[in-house]
Amino acid sequence: MNTTGTLFRVSIFGESHGVNVGAVIDGIPAGVPLCEEDFASDLDRRRSGARGTTPRKESDTPHIVSGLFEGHTTGAPMTVLFDNENTRSGDYSALVCHPRPGHSDFVAGVKYGGHNDYRGGGHFSGRITLGLVAAGVVAKKMLATCGVTVSAEVTEIGGERERRLFPVVIERALKECDSIGGIVECRASGVPVGWGEPFFDSVESRLSHLLFSIPAVRGVEFGDGFASASQRGSVHNDRLSDAAGHTFTNHAGGINGGITNGGDILFRIAVKPTSSIATPQMTYNFETGKVEPLVVKGRHDACIALRVPVIAEAVTAVALADLMLVARAYGL
Questions:
Q1: Which of 321, 329, 330, 322 is nearest to 143 (CA)?
Q2: Dihedral, CA atoms, 51, 54, 57, 60, nearest 10 degrees?
Q3: Does the bond joining 199 to the residue before it have cis omega, within 30 degrees of 0?
Q4: Is 219 helix (H, G, I), strand (E, B) or coil?
Q5: What's residue 47's pLDDT?
Q6: Residues sharing a CB contact under 8 Å with residue 101, sequence separation 6 or more, in sequence order
Q7: Eight-class DSSP state of 298
Q8: What's residue 120's pLDDT?
Q9: pLDDT tens per residue across span 232-279
Q10: Using CA atoms, how far apart are residues 226 and 29, in angstroms rounded to an integer?
Q11: How far apart are the first and last CA of the chain?
């Protein structure tokens, strides 16, 4: 449900317009050096402000209320809180009867009998990813002890792969009161051979499970991904180059048989266009019983993919930190 992990466990909580959002992180080894300032860089990368992101401004200051003492983790569960400060709940009241196409408004209302907090999307909002980013900061610290690094970047926006043209397609979407999606590529380097527990806890399974928990993610591919379907084995196979297991190529994305092979873990995720758009959409209104035009009010991202890289890094680090602890338990 809202908790993931075997030995490194993360629980997220909160609603977009509630008092707080945050995470409880359990399984952190004692003695990891950490302070609130360590969260600043990744939280800044997730924060809105760039052209094409929501105008909603939040300080996103982390409040660590447990699990930290004198600059080091204690081994106890860590709770990180973020205050919600800049909300406009009135923008969402009409969506109860006239739900947004492509969003959780309708299904959440049915599932929870109308008791869900609909403001700003409630618990289904991208705002909840703050807790994931916080957990990712801790996980990255843990991974650094064995030389593992994680990085991600946007490689495509609205079908455009030329970076210099990203601002052009974003401006076009803004002008047309519409939204666009994108592709984010993520790489984990320095991962040793042997992490992952086939079949259901394979590295791809664990990563995909968390990646699909990021709102707006619609596809994941590892290595050559779907392109491998048109390749021959003589092309796709990563031939070994030495006794350490290094390979000449990395078509598999650093994973064989669900287990890390020592190469870079490489994957891409597809991020859909933001559901909330100001372009009129003909959709069913439960109050009038008719299909009527809906114009979504409020402050929304024209391209949510711009803010996804740091979230992708976070969930990747969370999954790998858990796999690392499991591997250590097996003596690897």
A1: 321
A2: -100
A3: yes
A4: strand
A5: 84
A6: 275, 281, 283, 294
A7: S
A8: 83
A9: 999 999 999 999 999 999 999 999 999 999 999 999 999 999 999 989
A10: 38
A11: 30
